[in-house]
């Protein structure tokens, strides 16, 4: 998910995506510790997505205030 797509979402949708991405990251971490993850690069991608979502959500909150 890129920044342009995220900016088109409403703050509520961004929070939902953020929650889903965090849950996916937790599941990936658990699977990694048990040796079931083949695509370890997904961990990095989820962390980057979380950072993008949080940054844009904070920008929208500041703009609304």
UniProtKB/TrEMBL annotation:
SUPFAM superfamilies: Ribosomal protein L29 (L29p)
Record flagged with keyword Ribonucleoprotein: yes
InterPro entries on file: Ribosomal_protein_uL29, Ribosomal_uL29, Ribosomal_uL29_sf
Keyword Coiled coil: no
Gene Ontology molecular function, alphabetical: structural constituent of ribosome
One GO term describing the cellular component: cytosolic large ribosomal subunit
Gene3D superfamilies noted in UniProt: 1.10.287.310
One annotated GO biological process: translation
Keywords: Ribonucleoprotein, Ribosomal protein
Alphabetical list of PANTHER family matching this protein: 60S RIBOSOMAL PROTEIN L35/50S RIBOSOMAL PROTEIN L29, LARGE RIBOSOMAL SUBUNIT PROTEIN UL29C
Xref: HAMAP family: Ribosomal_uL29 (MF_00374)
Protein family (similarity comment): Belongs to the universal ribosomal protein uL29 family.
Protein name, as recorded: Large ribosomal subunit protein uL29
Species the sequence originates in: Synoicihabitans lomoniglobus
The organism's taxonomic lineage, starting at the top: Bacteria, Pseudomonadati, Verrucomicrobiota, Opitutia, Opitutales
Gene name for this UniProt entry: rpmC
């Amino acid at each position: 998910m890129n920044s342009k797509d995220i900016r088109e979402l409403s703050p509520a949708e961004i929070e939902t995506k953020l929650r889903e991405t965090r849950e996916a990251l937790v599941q990936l971490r658990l699977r990694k510790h048990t040796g079931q993850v083949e695509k370890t690069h997904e961990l990095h991608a989820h962390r980057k997505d979380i950072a993008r979502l949080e940054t844009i959500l904070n920008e929208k909150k500041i703009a609304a205030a």
